[in-house]
Amino acid sequence: MNTNLVDFIRANLAILQNQPLSGGIVAKNMHISDNGSGELSLYGDFTITLKVLDLTTNGAPNLNSLMTFTQQVITTKLRGGGYKNGVIIHKYNSAKKIFDKTKTWTYSIRYNFNFTVNVIQINMLTEIKGNDFVLAVVDSIGHQFTDRYGRNQSSAGLTQGEGGPATVSYNSWQKNKHIGVHEFFHTLSLDDIEDSDKKNRLMYHLGDNSGQTISDTEKGDMLNFIMKYMTDITKGNHSNVDLNTVNRLKTFLNNPTNGFKFNKAKFR
User: Fold this and answer.
1) Where do the H-state alpha helices sit in 44-90?
2) pLDDT of 20-72, one tens digit each?
3) What is the dihedral of CA 260, 262, 265, 268, to 10 degrees?
4) CA–CA separation, 262 and 169 (whole Å)
5) What is the pLDDT of residue 233?
6) Beta bridge mates, 39
7) Residues 185, 199: Cα–Cα separation, whole Å
8) Sign of CA dihedral 237, 241, 243, 245
9) With 90 as the cut, is the pLDDT of residue 268 above it?
10) β-strands 39-54, 133-138: how paired?
11) What does the pLDDT read at residue 241?
């Protein structure tokens, strides 16, 4: 093999190794520490990207400020690591630094993650990759629900389960700047709260919040979701490759029971 070809291969390998992984969750520099007593400590540098798709009829002039606020709050809420008991995963072999996929084990997990959060605006579906996180901004949401007290409630936002996609009514988002964060945290696996003694919590959703806190348990649940494909941590890089956001978004927005009103001409 001639020298020029060798140099060419080396150069292209270097480029490939430095390319960022696509997806809503990307992690690098991941490693594990096992204390030998059923506790794993996980480390890694994570980048979370939330793509905001404006589908409003008349535009959203305050969208940039709402996105900036949302990015700041998500970053703050995820900062500082977390802890979760009773996590059942494959047994970790610390000597070989691999997970034994023939055995399962119950661990306590300490999450020591550094986060960079990007909330960015996109203009069309072609800017969404199959595993992105998306927040669609719509004119209104007709969906209603009955709370635990038997009262009929309107929806300021809706999320299609873990991984999303998520939606928010623009007018509602302007009135309550935390709604974007609330819906995104549904994407990261958190449930709504309706307990009257928990009105200080961000996931309380009956409209009379007295605060915007996240419990340690909720934080542990989100960090556990972020590392849902935990065996990949032994590879050093990670991406949430199993999502299919484009198809899920199309199905979600076109479901008549959700009652979304939006500019369909933008949805292309």
Assistant:
1) 63-78
2) 445 688 888 888 999 999 999 999 898 999 999 999 999 999 999 999 999 99
3) -60
4) 9
5) 61
6) 108
7) 17
8) positive
9) no
10) parallel
11) 57
What one-character DSSP code corresponds to residue 61?
A: T
C-alpha to C-alpha distances, 198 to 185, 206, 215, nearest whole angstrom:
17, 11, 10
Q: What is the DSSP letter of 57?
A: S
Q: What is the pLDDT of residue 232?
A: 56
* pLDDT tens-place string over residues 166-201: 999 999 999 999 999 999 999 999 999 999 999 999
**Angle CA(48)–CA(120)–CA(170) in degrees, nearest 5?**
115
- CB count in 10 Å sphere of residue 64: 12
- Cα–Cα dist 237/29, whole Å: 7
pLDDT band at 8 (very low <50, low <70, confident <90, very high): very low
The two tokens of residue 178 are 């935390």
Burial bucket for residue 43 (CB in 10 Å: 0-12, 13-18, 19+): middle
> What single-letter amino acid sits at 121?
Q
Question: In the structure encoding, which two tokens stand for residue 80, read together?
Answer: 């500082």
Name the one residue in this structure whose structure tokens are 């691999």. Answer: 98
Give the integer Cα–Cα distance in Å for 152 and 210: 21
If we measure between CA atoms, which residue out of 105, 243, 220 comes closest to residue 166?
243
Query: Could you tell me the two tokens for 157?
Result: 């936002």
Average pLDDT, the chain: 85
Domain range annotation of the chain: 5-267
- Strand, coil or helix: 231: helix
Q: What 3-state DSSP class applies to 234?
A: helix
Which class in CATH covers the domain with range 5-267? alpha beta
**Helix and strand totals (H; E) in the chain:** 6, 12
Secondary structure letter of residue 204 according to DSSP: B
Q: What is the pTM of this model?
A: 0.85
- Is the pLDDT score of 11 beyond 60? no
